[in-house]
Amino acid sequence: MVEQYFRPDSLEQATFLYNEKVKEGKHPTYFAGGTEIITLSRWNQSPINVLIDIKRLPSCRLHQITEDFFVLGSAITLTEIVQENHFPLLTEITRGIADKTARNKITIGGNICGDIFYREAVLPLLLTNSALVLADHISMRTELIMDIFDQKLLLKEGELFVQAFMENRYMNEPFYSVKIRQQWETGYPLITAAAIKTNGELRVAFSGLCSFPFRSLEMEEILNNPSYNQTEKIIRAKQYIPGRILNDVEGSSEYRLFVFGYIMENILAQLGDER
After folding, report:
1. Residue 101 neighbours by CB under 8 Å, 6+ apart
2. DSSP result, the chain
3. How confident is the model over 137-158, as a mean pLDDT?
4. Digit-coded pLDDT (tens) for 66-104
5. What is the CATH number of domain 175-271?
6. Where in the chain is the domain with CATH 3.30.43?
7. Tens of pLDDT along 186-211?
8. What does the mean pLDDT of the chain come to?
9. Which regions of the chain carry the CATH code 3.30.390.50?
10. Which of 4, 107, 150, 226 could form a disulfide with 32 if both were Cys (CB 3.0 to 4.6 A apart)?
């Protein structure tokens, strides 16, 4: 049950509040949209009792193209990403998350850092190896996402995801994205896939295949190896799926593996040298 709510005006104040509440034995969390927190609270599955609202922190609300980078603050909503459309691949991925009403509230930071494991919005960030700005009450640091994302974003206690920086060169690269659902037009996916071709090489990332989103460098090495034909690439790529394939109400593991093969065929046909 939420006992306290704070709406700080600065990043320093937000991270200080988090640290102080932990010292008091509370269970704080940062939030902007709050959709997941509300859902888990209704199910009595959340120990959170202090909310720190980051919606009006200027550093978390940046959403712009600079000379070298696309800068995306963690408190930008999915709807705002779609409307601005600075990065078409990110636009396509976020457009398929939840329904329009929910996208008005869900933020990029909330989707990536939340407990719901799909975290689809992270796929374009993984493909571009975005630089993330992270902050706590002591310091700020910048890390490449591939160094600090292993099934989830590896944040320290009290650390806040502030911004992502993506190189402008990725904004207009050829890409592929698809979200396959077995049941409804909105809701959780069977598999979401994203791919981009940069410097002549394919990069691929998936959500919904395993219980975490991933980009596999080993899989990409196979896909970019000219000595393999399309069928060999797909067969070998399956060996580098980095975890147990999900088997749940959205679809069986066998069906997911079949869909994975179908998606890989499309990626190679559209972006690979086989096209």
Report:
1. none
2. ---EEE--SSHHHHHHHHHHHHHTT--EEEESS-HHHHHHHHTT-----EEEE-TT-GGGS-EEE-SSEEEEETT-BHHHHHHH-SSHHHHHHHHTSS-HHHHTT-BHHHHHHSSSTT-TTHHHHHHTT-EEEEE-SS-EEEEEHHHHEESEE-PPTT-EEEEEEEEGGGTTS-EEEEEE-SS-SSSS-SEEEEEEEETTEEEEEEESSSSS-EE-HHHHHHHT-TTS-HHHHHHHHHTT--SPPP-BTTB-HHHHHHHHHHHHHHHHHHHSTT-
3. 97
4. 999 999 999 999 999 999 999 999 999 999 998 889 999
5. 3.30.390.50
6. 4-53
7. 567 899 999 999 999 999 999 999 99
8. 93
9. 175-271
10. 107
> Which fold would CATH assign to domain 58-170?
3.30.465
Q: Which CATH topology does 4-53 take?
A: 3.30.43
How many CA atoms does the CB half-sphere of 21 hold within 13 Å?
Answer: 23
- CB contact at 8 A, 46 and 69: no
* Beta bridge partner(s), residue 12: none
Contact between 230 and 274 under an 8 Å Cβ cutoff? The reply is: yes
Banded pLDDT at 43 (limits 50, 70, 90): low
